[in-house]
Design brief:
single chain, alpha/beta, D-Maltodextrin-Binding Protein, domain 2, 2 domains, five-stranded mixed sheet, globular, Solute-binding_3/MltF_N, Transporter substrate-binding domain-containing protein, SBP_3_CS, signal, Iontro_rcpt_C
Length: 265
């Protein structure tokens, strides 16, 4: 009986290795290295941030750790400047982008996206002196107003497309863009609703906000083009964690509680 069990175990290992070797280039690479390397740009609350002890925390980070655990590999965070994050993926510095990236046609020409894992939209941080004067993004579409956003984001795209009459200043980080409003150098900032909601709550004595999103933006995980097996894996993983309650638990931790703020303040 021991010999039969040994033979069956060996056969199972051979079948597993054979399946793994044909799972697609990205999945094969992850299995071979024993690592899931996820690219993101730390600073996008509450998706990916750097804590006081210099570790990375956030909604995407937790999802990545669950994914790696289910794959049986180590989660490796790859903090990358936003304007270089797609090139980093394409050149193999990471296996996928888990960075609150909005799915759009321009990006989809360079990478493949899995199904959206969360829906957000653009909201507004407003200088308190304009309370009552600015009630929607349309009110900002005027040369007398200065608007900020983060370079290379959908916030910037929205400003250029929908607020073309306003003066626009771009910044490397969303925090710098928001600080312009606090410092009185800008009238408003256009950016993703989760960041606007949290930042406005943290600085309620310094800024006002219009939280209701005025755009529809699905966020998705991105992988190299030409690997449908990895996209299939991501979609199935997402369905699984949404079905077993894991997704809701992580979502509630980062979007329905502010307990995590003490880790970054």
């Amino acid at each position: 009986m021991k010999h039969k069990i040994g033979k069956l175990a060996a056969l199972g290992a051979i079948i597993f290795c054979s399946a793994s070797a044909n799972a697609g280039p990205v999945l094969d690479g992850i299995a071979e290295s024993g690592e899931l390397r996820a690219c993101f740009d730390a600073g996008y609350m509450p998706f990916e941030m750097k804590s006081k002890n210099n570790s990375y925390i956030g909604f995407d980070i937790d999802l990545g750790k669950v994914m790696a655990k289910q794959m049986g590999v180590k989660y490796v965070p790859v903090n990358t400047a936003w304007d270089g994050i797609i090139p980093a993926l394409i050149t193999g510095k990471c296996d996928l982008i888990m960075a609150g990236m909005t799915i759009n046609a321009q990006r989809n020409m360079k990478v493949n996206f899995a199904d959206p894992y969360i829906i957000v939209g653009q909201s507004i941080i407003v200088n308190p002196k304009l309370k009552g004067e600015i009630n929607s993004y349309k009110d900002l579409n005027d040369p007398k107003y200065t608007v900020t956003s983060k370079l290379g984001t959908t916030g910037e795209v929205v400003v250029k497309r929908m607020l073309s009459k306003a003066k626009y200043n771009a910044f490397e980080t969303e925090t710098d863009a928001a600080m312009e409003v606090i410092n009185g150098k800008a009238d408003a900032m256009i950016y993703d609703m989760p960041f606007v909601s949290i930042y406005a709550a943290q600085n309620s004595d310094k800024v006002d906000s219009i939280l209701e999103p005025f755009t529809y933006e699905p966020l998705g995980w991105a992988v190299k083009q030409g690997d449908p097996d990895m996209v299939n894996f991501l979609n199935n993983f997402l369905r699984q964690i949404k079905g077993d309650g894991t997704y809701d638990r992580i979502y509630d931790k980062w979007f329905k509680s502010d307990a995590w703020l003490k880790q970054i303040n």
